[in-house]
Amino acid sequence: MSAARRAARRGRDRKAEIIAPPPGRDRFAPGDRPRVAVAGGGIAGLAAATLLAERGARVTLYEREESLGGRLAGRRVRLSDGSRVTMSRGFHAFFRQYYNLRGLLRRTDPGLDRLRPLPDYPLRHSGGLTDSFARVPRTPPLSALGFVALSPTFGWRDLAAMDARAALPLLDVRVPDVYRRFDDMSATAFLEGVRFPEAAHHLAFEVFSRSFFADPRELSAAELLLMFHIYFLGSAEGLLFDVPTEPFPQALWEPLGDYLHRLGADIRTDTPVREVRPDGDGRVRVRTDGTWDDHDAAVLALDPGALRALVAASPELGTTAWRDDVAALATAPPFLVSRLWLDRPVRADRPGFLGTSGYDGLDNVSVLDRYEGEAARWAARTGGSVVELHAYAVPDGQEPAAVRHRLVDALRRAYPETREARITDELHEWRADCPFFPVGSHARRPPVRTPHPNVTLAGDAIRCDLPVALMERAATTGFLAAGALLADRGVRGQVLWTVPRAGRSAALRALGGLGGLGRLGRR
Questions:
Q1: Which of 129, 199, 292, 499 is deepest in the core (most CB within 10 A)?
Q2: Which pLDDT tens digit goes with each residue over 195-204?
């Protein structure tokens, strides 16, 4: 590895890969600065706007909400005791493999001091078994062997009982090949085909699939295999992660918004984009409420529902086939986040984050005062605690109030000391705006490039032929969308990093090529 590569490396994995952008100028000349619209102020839009502004483009960032952050935005509210707090969608894990997202955050926090590690990622089934990743080695294949050695739910006998040939594709996940081989199979079908033990299925793999806000019976197996590669067998960063030390706006987005202002970007919150109209001369017109703005290019960094609506309202945007593909983008089932302010603390040994299975729809429990400064200050002042409950992929027909009650009941089962606690305040987020990747959907997923050279797409719903997912896919496609516009104008884009784009060793890759569809069959 060269000195420059060593200096640029952002993690511990020596096999992490660098993706260099096409060569070009460092930035636009003063008289040659294009005007670029970025629709969407979430992670993808912020990444695109940041790179474009750094290269000298005149950026206008449109965000429909009152603040930046997209699905990680926050709103200030006042509790019954007069405290000012920030409500958001809560817990998100900033894994060490999120090289490009962390690179974005380093713009305002070079040492990532506004993130702090959580010591463990425990996963508990209601039957009593709990898995931990704190002592599992981080480097594959020792990570897998260490998990088997330490796990109460997955032992050596379970390993021997697996269909080894069917499981071999886990050893060599490549994008987009994994979609060609496994996109027409559900995550559940894959797990059943390799004969994973039921307890390990629930604790490890169902937790992974539900982080896509999806039922594993409907989620593409390719996405599950990709996540297993990113977080376990393909990366030496391990399954531990960081979380912000303060609420998302204060720790992440307000500093990044200030940075964009200093670069000359025009940030327009509370300003949804209603229509996009590419002109014949290569310009792009953007309509907000009652106003048309002229730009030289645009990045559309929206959630699936917002992108579908914008394209439907923009009849001159794209070809018929492309518009049909955008219209086919799926939105995941609704999810609920309930944040409870309790009048007493939870037990001292409770982790900051606990993944759960078998608790009547409760997917995880966070104790915010264990890691977030704002919650910790409230808890210290009142003697209480701040607990957050998540329910992903809520089935159709369930009312939010009923789900809220079930989550509280599940909390009292998981943490019995909360049975006597009084809820002094509670806030809830009921949303349905995350992407969904059902079986067989990858072929229609739109890529960063669109039929218009001056319009690109970004977001975690957008196709990206790199091993990235969730927040990292949003950041990576944001940089790629901006980079495509820059490359067309002879300006250098963003250096990107990913986990290895194939199995970590030649022997494992050879084994991985032996397994797959022939043994599992197509389901």
A1: 499
A2: 776 666 555 5
